[in-house]
Design brief:
The chain is an alpha/beta fold and 488 residues long. The protein folds into two domains: 68-299 and 310-330, 3-Layer(aba) Sandwich (Rossmann fold); 339-384 and 397-459, no CATH class. It has 22 helices and nine strands. The protein has helices at 3-32, 48-62, 67-75, 89-92, 107-118, 136-143, 159-166, 181-191, 195-200, 224-235, 253-260, 272-280, 308-317, 332-335, 341-351, 359-366, 371-376, 378-381, 425-436, 445-452, 454-458, 473-487; strands at 103-104, 126-130, 149-153, 173-175, 214-219, 246-251, 281-290, 294-295, 320-328. Helix 10 links the parallel strand 5 (214-219) and strand 6. Helix 8 packs parallel to helix 22 (473-487). Residues 465-474 have a biased composition (Acidic residues). Belongs to the class I-like SAM-binding methyltransferase superfamily. rRNA adenine N(6)-methyltransferase family.
Length: 488
């Protein structure tokens, strides 16, 4: 490149660079230039008619009844769609199998249940109705001249209607979750509260051997309430202090199977809680009621993960539920002393972790060489051909009515391979009474295990998972925090 060319480039380049810079600045300024503001125009005020229409549409959207529910109540004979207007929208939605609160929504079924509840009801006996809702059953009970009536309603939105419709006496209606007594008891265990006592205040107290203190009706959806009943007897507290009571409960076939199964029902149904329940309570199957006569409707989702028997019981529960009468056994303490209730609960809990646990190796873990006493015991080794199985002639998975309690029911042909799952509840009780009467029992590791598990025993049959206590997270957390503070 010649010197003249280089000289010309040196003169042209600065001018070119200056022109490029100026062009770029112009483009950027044009891009970021603010747009002129659009003048604000005041919107015309809505007319009163338009506001009312908007409010009505919002209300209609909030109180919309699910289509399948409305269609069933409108098209099914004996159903009254006007009843649906008396329920909050949240209750009309579909619910899962873990729902604890249901409401009766059919007058014919209400009349049938009222006939059962008032049959042989003494005039002075308290009748408790849980979750009356719009009061269809309450109306039927009052028509049958029930004088001593108490209502426990979970949803406060029903309170005004119930008081206005039936002119109830003072304190006859209480707002509280009676089916959730297990939850209140759990919270009381953290902060020594009196939630359960407050809920049960005013209910008459009687001794265990006397007549039942009150009659109760409720619809339950989970086993938690029944586990609480068992726990109150085991710990001899709360409901136990009221004496014996009579309950008429509506439940699904699956839930009934959990409390009324026989040893032939399989591991999923015949568990330690089943054995304890059948020893503590008498139960009787009274009949079936249509499940769609109760709100909210349950969904049977997720049944693919369950075994065939479970799936069948859930599918059966989609159409009909069971009405069951449950009463604590009057002669319970003739066969199981009150001081041994907690030990018996521990005995069942320890050995029914698996139904296939063999009896002799399990008991020899606590008292070495005790198996010989069982094998040599003539009560166990005898072969009885005349002995009739009390569960014969019933469904293979359910006892429709309790069998009499016995603590002298020995297993036939007992040997080292006999498993806990082969025992009936009465045979478990017989084995337990023999176990605790051995001289080595009080010095055995079993007593140490009971003491180490004492805290868990206090929650026997009502243990809570994280999702189970999610209904009241704030209160549970406050109770836990207070307990931690007291401990520190």
């Amino acid at each position: 490149m010649t010197s003249n060319s280089l000289h010309m480039l040196q003169r042209i380049f600065p001018r070119w660079r200056s022109a490029q810079t100026s062009l770029c600045r112009t483009i950027v300024n044009d891009a970021v230039a603010t747009k002129p503001k659009t003048p604000r125009v005041r919107k015309p005020k809505a007319t009163a008619a338009a506001s009312a229409a908007a409010a009505n549409s919002t209300t209609a959207a909030d109180t919309a009844i699910p289509k399948h529910v409305l269609e069933y109540f409108q098209t099914t004979p004996g159903m009254d769609a006007s009843v649906l207007k008396q329920f909050p929208p949240s209750i009309l939605r579909k619910s899962s199998l873990s729902t604890e609160r249901f409401y009766l929504a059919n007058r014919t079924t209400a009349a049938r249940i009222a006939d059962v509840l008032t049959q042989d009801l003494p005039a002075d006996r308290l009748l408790v109705e849980v979750n009356p809702g719009p009061g269809l059953l309450t109306e039927q009970l009052l028509q049958r001249n029930v004088q001593n009536l108490r209502l426990y309603e979970t949803d406060a939105s029903f309170e005004a209607r119930l008081n206005a419709t039936f002119n109830l006496p003072k304190d006859a209606l209480r707002i509280g979750d009676f089916n959730g007594l297990w939850r209140l008891s759990y919270l009381d265990g953290f902060d020594n509260g009196q939630r359960v006592c407050g809920m049960l205040s005013g209910i008459p107290h009687r001794k265990w051997q006397e007549e039942v203190s009150f009659r109760l009706f409720s619809v339950i959806g989970t086993v938690k309430y029944l586990r609480y009943l068992m726990n109150s007897i085991t710990q001899q507290s709360e409901l136990f202090s009221l004496g014996r009571y009579e309950m008429f409960l509506v439940m699904s076939p699956l839930l009934f199977s959990h409390i009324a199964s026989t040893k032939d029902a399989g591991y999923k149904l015949y568990r330690g809680g089943t054995i304890v329940f059948q020893l503590y309570f008498e139960h009787e199957f009274l009949g079936k009621v249509p499940s769609k006569h109760f709100l909210p409707w349950c969904t049977t989702g997720g049944t693919k993960k369950l075994r065939t028997l479970h799936k069948k019981l859930i599918e059966d529960g989609a159409e009909e539920w069971y009405l069951v009468r449950i009463v604590p056994r009057r002669n319970l303490f003739d066969h199981l002393l009150p001081d041994n209730l907690s030990l018996f609960a521990s005995f069942v809990t320890q050995h029914y972790v698996s139904r296939r646990n063999r009896i002799i190796p399990s008991l020899e873990h606590w008292i070495p060489h005790c198996g010989a006493r069982l094998i040599l015991n003539s009560n166990y080794t005898r072969k009885s051909s005349s002995k009739k199985d009390p569960t014969s002639g019933v469904l293979p998975s359910q006892l429709l009515k309790s069998v009499p309690l016995s603590s002298n029911d020995y297993v036939d042909n007992f040997n080292i391979f006999t498993e806990f799952g082969e025992l009936t509840p009465a045979q478990v009780l017989t084995l337990f009474n023999e176990f605790i009467n051995w001289s080595e029992f009080h010095q055995s590791p079993f007593m140490q295990a009971v003491e180490s598990q004492k805290h868990k025993q206090q929650r026997f049959a009502r243990s809570l998972d994280d999702d189970e206590s999610a209904d009241e997270p704030g209160e549970v957390q406050r109770a836990k925090s207070k307990k931690s503070t007291d401990t520190l």
